[in-house]
Amino acid sequence: MASLNAADREAVIKFADGCAVTRVPLSIIEQGMVEKVRKKLVGNPDYRGEVKGWFDLLIVRLCKFLTSRADANAFHGHMAYLSRVNDRKQLPHESELQFDLYNYLLSAMPSVLLEVSNVASGRTDIYLPLNGFRFIIEVKRTTSRTWSCFSVRPHSKQAASYSSTDVRLGVLATLDLSIREPGVPHVSDCFGVLKRKHSLTDERSVIFMRVPGNRLPPSSLSR
Question: Residue 64 CA to chain centroid, in angstroms?
Fold first, then answer.
């Protein structure tokens, strides 16, 4: 710690088990989003102990990813997949969101893998192995011209199915390619929890994250 500058020492609390334990600053809106999701997870049989601690961290990191991409200038670099597409035959694929999220999580979580096979007889998009359990992130896109809350529900079934042999917590990240007014939806409408009931005794929780793509900046409203 002595070699860190003052700003870094303020951000890094300590080092433990090979990891830097850091403070993650959240805006008022982000705090509300995180707390809303955490409250909806109460009652999930696996959302406790060490699993809860790691999943809470993942929730915070996903929230930060979402707000950063909602703010980002979509017309440059590796985030070009967020920009407006004039020809809907050339819409970006979900793999662009998948690799962006994967690279973001590499610096935020202890271990992140891509395309892991033999999980619930399928192959995962993003796989996070932890101490005796794992989290799986399913990445999709929706090409519907209009967005509704039902756009993610079919994909949430697949996201929930990957938890059939592990903790009943998962994540669905969806690239929203609907046609909207310039700007992006409010982030608080893009982050939440879906519950999938597989049987009377088997209910699983899926975090959904809607990443708005196919967009124009607010300045285009005054042209």
Answer: 9
